[in-house]
Write a structure and sequence with these properties.
The complex is a heterodimer of chains A (349) and B (277). The radius of gyration of chain A is 21 Å and the shape is globular. Chain A is 72% helix and 2% strand. Chain A has helices at residues 11-36, 40-48, 54-80, 87-104, 111-137, 141-161, 194-213, 215-225, 227-232, 237-264, 270-273, 277-287, 295-316, 322-342, and strands at 2-5, 343-346. By secondary structure, chain A is mostly helical. A two-stranded antiparallel ribbon of chain A has the order 1-2. Chain B has 277 residues and is mainly alpha-helical. Chain B is built from 11 helices and no strands. In chain B, helix 2 (35-53) crosses helix 8 (161-187) and helix 6 packs across helix 8. Classes of the chains: A mainly alpha (349), B mainly alpha (277). At the A-B interface, strand 1, helix 1, helix 5, helix 6 and helix 12 of A face helix 3, helix 4, helix 9 and helix 11 of B.
Chain lengths: 349, 277
């Protein structure tokens, strides 16, 4: 038995393979729930429960905001062949930049703008550094960006436990509250900080247009498809990689600004700023298959999983890791189904 | 001084085992980015089995879990020819997540009879030598290297590319699993969520630092071990925040990658094999 490329898979076969792999993923997930001592059906129900009421939907939207911002940038970076795994760290750097402006510069009408500026710049710098290391030294960005996640993590821990620790917070590890001028407006009673949401939607659309409607986008797509061809055409590979790295880092930085200015109102422990958004956004980008516009669909989908995971965590006191598992299984199911639909099985050699 | 060296070796041992496992797979052309998750799940499997049936059974269970999860990755990265980097990251998330969920009931449970660290450290050293011999002095090693360098040519000579890759990935998974078991049975005989604390990623970077040579990996692993030890020892005694020490290994990995980024990897690394193309 072996596999061979299928040049023209039928739609029925494609649908079947995606269906089969998703089913497999949910079966495995069910087994895990059983092993934890929870009825799988109940767990699936809870996972989808945020869809049923307006407050749940607001929770989905709240989590979709950073996923959309980061995912749009990553879908561009992945398409061009820059495997930025460090959005988590870039998000944290964005939060640090925002916190600096909020805590140490005099508040005024420019405060929010400055927060987005410095936060985005730090995120872009963090990603750009990895791109520079790759272009200059050939260091794999998969590993460098990943390591930078840990560096950003410890930087935030250091700041909230050390020099930036709030004067009025005694035992806790966070800074003082941001002044009112450094808080993003929200939709009604929800935690949906709508300016960041608009920013995310705008970024996804803009990057989509950039990629598919401009000469620069054309160059980027060529580089992603075929590096030899790109070299032959005289495209500046290093400069283009740096560009997409900076763009994706900038958006991840914005996401970090949104979290601290829109939700928490202070800098706090890294695990509380981001619930693994950087990693979940990898899935958002991968599901969108290198089309930034499609993240408008995939980000809310993963937002639902994060919100549902939160419901699961509260109802069954499960560790938050449940989200990692769901995301990992979905990712495997997706790439497995994609690969399976491209191949056919030959039973004879 | 002597203590520092001993601690460096003992802490370098799980890194060495995991790096050897990743190295073996990479020599056959398969990237295993799932190391962190495989270690975490193996550590849990080893701990759970050790509670019920003794530490040596636990070690076997850890190895078994590593083999199984690696073969699961192989299903995607080798047979289905999916993107091996993405599949590896998904396996890392899956292993970490599943171990966190399933391990919750073992949190804070003591292990009565831990394994001794020193014999395991010696065993890992022996395994590094054996891996060196396997790669350079055996027929299977020749096949394995040729599959990693030029799968098409190996295929023409009748070497089963996918079979060799599965074997390398699976055996490597066993080594990674042993590294996880060392953590939960010997080094810190207990289970906590996230106890692998990035060691899997350090191991992957170590493979590059070691230029895909098992014997060089030994020195690299002990170097990292020494750094981790110094981090513990110097904390509090010098006016540098403890977070800076905690961040040091990761900074070092970046430095290593920058310095040795262009060292030569197996030529077919990360490329799925497609016969007749």
């Amino acid at each position: 038995m072996r596999l061979e490329l299928d040049p023209a898979p039928t739609p029925r076969k494609v649908a079947l393979s995606y269906g089969a792999f998703l089913l497999l993923a949910f079966l495995l997930l069910g087994l895990l729930f059983l092993a934890y001592g929870v009825s799988p059906l109940k767990a699936y129900g809870l996972l989808l429960s945020p869809l049923l009421d307006p407050l749940g939907l607001a929770e989905v939207a709240r989590r979709a905001i950073p996923l959309l911002l980061i995912g749009a940038g990553l879908s561009l970076a992945f398409r061009v062949g820059f495997f930025n795994i460090g959005a988590e760290g870039q998000l944290l750097m964005g939060a640090v930049g925002a916190a600096y402006v909020a805590l140490f510069l005099p508040p005024g009408p420019y405060t929010l703008l400055l927060m987005f500026f410095l936060g985005g710049a730090l995120g872009a710098l963090w990603a750009g550094f990895a791109a520079w290391l790759r272009v200059r030294f050939g260091a794999s960005e998969i590993l460098t960006t990943l390591m930078q996640n840990y560096l950003a993590y410890y930087l935030v821990v250091y700041l909230v436990a050390g020099p930036w620790k709030g004067q009025f917070v005694f035992g806790f590890l966070y800074t003082d509250r941001f002044p009112e001028a450094a808080r993003l407006p929200r939709l009604g009673e929800t935690l949906v900080h709508w300016p960041t949401l608009l920013l995310g939607v705008g970024a996804a659309l803009l990057l989509h247009l950039l990629l598919f409607r401009t000469p620069l986008g054309f160059a980027l797509r060529i580089l992603g498809e075929n590096r030899e061809a790109a070299r032959y055409l005289g495209l500046k590979e290093g400069r283009l990689l740096l560009l997409v790295a900076v763009a994706s880092g900038l958006l991840a930085g914005f996401a970090g600004v949104g979290e601290v200015a829109g939700i928490h109102g202070r800098l706090l422990e890294p695990a509380q700023i981001s619930l693994g958004y950087g990693f979940t956004a990898i899935l958002v980008a991968w599901l969108a298959r290198g089309r930034p516009g499609l993240t408008l669909l995939t980000a809310p989908l993963l937002g639902l999983i994060l919100a549902g995971g939160d419901a699961l965590k509260l109802a069954f006191s499960m560790p938050f890791r449940v989200v990692d598992v769901v995301a990992g299984l979905l990712l495997l199911a997706w790439i497995g189904a994609e690969a399976a639909s491209r191949h056919r099985i030959l039973w004879r050699r | 001084m002597e203590e520092a060296l001993v601690r460096a070796v003992l802490f370098g041992t799980p890194i060495l085992l995991a790096a050897l496992g990743a190295l073996l797979a990479e020599r056959s052309g398969v990237v295993n980015l799932g190391v962190e998750g495989i270690m975490a799940l193996s550590a849990l499997a080893a701990f759970a089995a050790a509670l019920g049936a003794g530490p040596w059974v636990g070690a076997v269970a850890g190895v078994g879990a590593g083999v199984l999860l690696s073969l699961f990755l192989g299903l995607f990265a080798i047979t289905l020819r999916a993107n091996p980097f993405v599949a590896g990251l998904a396996v890392a998330a899956l292993g970490l997540g599943a171990s966190g969920i399933l391990g919750k009931r073992y949190e804070g449970v003591p292990l009565e009879n831990p394994l001794p660290e020193v014999p395991l450290a010696l065993l890992s050293l022996l395994l590094a030598f054996l891996l060196h011999l396997l790669l350079y002095r055996s027929r299977f090693g020749l096949y394995l290297r040729s599959v990693g360098e030029n799968p098409k040519a190996a295929d023409l000579f009748g070497v089963g590319v996918e079979g060799v890759r599965y074997l390398a990935l699976g055996l490597g998974g066993g080594l990674i699993g042993l590294g996880g078991a060392y953590l939960s049975l010997a080094y810190r005989p207990s289970w906590t969520d996230g106890m692998t604390s990035g060691l899997g990623w350090v191991a992957i970077a170590l493979v590059i630092l070691a230029a895909w040579e098992p014997l060089r990996a030994v020195f690299g692993a002990y170097l990292f071990g020494l750094l981790f030890f110094l981090q513990f020892r110097l904390q509090g005694s010098v006016p540098i925040p403890s977070e800076a020490f905690a961040a040091m290994p990761y900074l070092l990995v970046i430095l290593v990658l920058a310095l040795s980024g262009r060292s030569r990897a197996p030529r077919a690394l990360g490329q799925p094999f497609e016969r007749g193309r």
